[in-house]
Amino acid sequence: MNNLSVLCLAVAGLSACNGSNSKSSETANASSRSNAAEKPNIVIMLTDDQGYGDMNCYGNLRLQTPNLDKLAAEGVRFTNFYAGAAASTPSRAALLTGRYAERAGLQGVVDYLSENGLESDEFTLADYLKQNNYATGIFGKWHLGCLPEHLPLRHGFNEFFGLPYSNDMWPFHPQPGHPYRALPLYDNERVVEYNPTVNQMTTRITKRATEFINKHKDEPFLLYVPYTQPHVPLGVSDKFKGKSGEGLYADVIMEIDWSVGEIMKTLKENGLDDNTLVLFTSDNGPWLSYGNHGGSTGGLREGKGTTFEGGQRVPFIARMPGRIPEGKVSDQFLSALDITPTLVELTGSQMPRMNKFDGENVWKTLAGQPQNHQPFFFLYDGQVEAVRDEKWKCVAPHEYRIVTEPGKDGLPGVQLANGGKTGLALFDLEKDPQESIDLADEYPEITKKMAAMMKDFQEEMAVCTR
Fold it and tell me: Where are the 3-oxoalanine (Ser) modifications (predicted)?
């Protein structure tokens, strides 16, 4: 994106910067602790720039998302889930490593000119599971570096089909000043096409994802599906073009929903439904400067590229029959940092002794039980801009992105990178998820405590260098 069996997870907590581990030396003896029939399959579906208000079951009644609504009805829908960051690269790094992206030096968005990416001493979810005899596949957008050593097959994935970075990083960008090269489409580590038709990407990703399930139905697998949509430029196949009656963005969401249905159908056809944990979420909030092509925050403040709620609070659904309750809505706050540590324990995998997670065990929450959560820090480009602790969110003084004039029909509007400015503020997110009422003066002790937390964590992040 420019400028996402039984758990007994041992909480690692926050750690100092640490990245000197060797995958081969530390985890070579990771063993299969149970047979394939006992190991749960994992499916993670991650959309690109889908906002909190971009699903029917999240209150947007003009969007048709029957398969996602069914997924929510058969599992738990979370109303306080946060992407790991407010932009693509750091968000995906956080999800796949369980660590703040700053620890990997990936606080910014990478593109075709970037020489940095996810290094070999950063372990991904795929690394852990592959060494536990899981088949691992990614079909969609990677965005964690495009040099050979940074691509998915060097980070635990057996198969890759998709894009190395965002679909707007190509020669047809509508805005002047973006001299992008031809956009490569990879099949494993080989470029098989340039500038793939954006209208066909969801269909092609879905085909490869379902083929992966069919191919690996007799062994445990990790299927990671990071869709390239609804990131601009929007694209939808002919079978969904105009079908929603609500515009192109709604058509795109409708096709993603179809894809979710195809994946779920394939799981059921192979008898894998009951032993598969399915997770659905987004990598960050909507790109508001694209107007009717940019999605909805559902009334939350600001959008992508900011650490206000609209930038990082995203949809999250978890489904696993017999393990996760059906039809539950949870307001417990979680983050994408929790996904990898949770799944490492769920699958009986091992982690290097020195590779500490920032995320924590959230199984009790997924299973519908009460559970406290450690503070979650909102970072943007290496700066700690906010922290959430229980119902409170404290915002540090900073400048932030604002949209003064939204675009239309694929053309961006006017976006000011540092057009907004906030002082130290405190919000009660239970009563005020829109972050409209500053309570810093009313609760000075809470504000002081949380401001100190941000200061201490900023100092910790300052030593995270490569």
Answer: 88
Exposed e or buried b for every residue in 173-190, given b needs 16+ CB within 10 A? beeeeeebeebbbbeeee
| CATH number of this structure's domain 36-372 | 3.40.720.10
Topology agreement, domain 36-372 and domain 383-462: no
DSSP string, 43-87: EEEEESS--TT-SGGGT-TTS--HHHHHHHHTSEEEEEEE-SSSS
Dihedral, 176, 180, 184, 185 alpha carbons, nearest 10:
-30
First-to-last C-alpha distance (Å) of the chain: 23
Q: Is pTM beyond 0.70 here?
A: yes
Would you state the structure tokens that stand for residue 439, as one six-digit string?
């309570």
Q: Compute CA distances 372 → 320, 326, 399, whole Å.
A: 22, 21, 31
- Rounded alpha-carbon distances, angstroms, from residue 145 to 78, 155, 178: 30, 11, 19
Percentage of the residues of the chain whose pLDDT score is greater than 70: 91
Residue of 258, 220, 261 whose CA lies nearest to 132: 220
Beta bridge partner(s), residue 381:
none
- Using CA atoms, how far apart are residues 194 and 112, in angstroms rounded to an integer? 13
Give the pairing type, strands 41-47 and 221-226.
Answer: parallel
Residue 24 pLDDT > 70, yes or no?
A: no
Amino acid 29: pLDDT:
32
Residue type, 202: T
Residue ranges per structural domain of the chain: 36-372, 383-462
Q: What is the pLDDT of residues 113-164, one digit of tens each?
A: 999 999 999 999 999 999 999 999 999 999 999 999 999 999 999 999 999 9
Could you tell me how many residues make up the chain? 466
Question: What's the CA dihedral at 140, 144, 146, 149 to 10 degrees?
Answer: -110
